[in-house]
Input
Amino acid sequence: MIEDRLIEHPCPDCLARAIAADIRSAIDSTHQQGNRASLALAGGGTPMPIYRRLGEFDLDWSRVSAIPGDERWVDADHPASNYQALKSCFAQTTMELLPLVPAQAGPEPNLEQARASLDQLMKPFSAVLLGMGGDGHFASLFPNAVSPAVGLAPESNEDVLLVTPDPLPTEAPYPRVSLSLARLLRTDKLILAITGQAKLDVLELAAQSAAHLAARQEVDISRLPIAALLAHAGSRLEIHWSP
Ligand code: 6PG
Output
């Protein structure tokens, strides 16, 4: 039953305010420990109102660095670039935003820029914010496109991976660069933000697979990647939902 784990909000704006405050408190906690805060932030549409709210807070943004949790293999000024969307949401702040893809993407996807950016970030993250697609993907860990041992395991030798969803998502038909589940789990605060009944139904289905996985039963986790997040994050994962 996923309902008993949900943090439910009456509206998307209520969800945005609550999660923005949640991430703000994670940043404050890192700063109070004398460290630089680091964030991994989801792309897509759901989180944008969260980022606009978060960017309004008066905090020491010069001590915050962020990275997209995943990126499309496009130039930084392309409309589909998560980097560009995040840059615009946080334009009023002095937050450092690190890219997963070079400003000019180039013909062949590779992980050079992603690895260089990740090397600059404090571990663990102060907070990770994830969304979920209707097919059960999170970050760019798409169904049947990721080796479970590399991208969907709690421990992995890979912090970041190249993913070519098949079929390419209609809303953003590009190869992807994605943080692995293992790297996303290395965080003080882990948040999943979803809206609508359809995504809740997918999450319910995934919770059943996650239970089988936790009971070490045979599960083809690559078909529903979000189940790996539920299984390996456990109660650490804060799931926020609004209609
Ligand atoms: C991306 C995102 C992706 C997103 C889901 C949900 O690059 O597209 O990081 O993982 O979180 O696709 O997107 P929506 O919030 O727009 O439904």
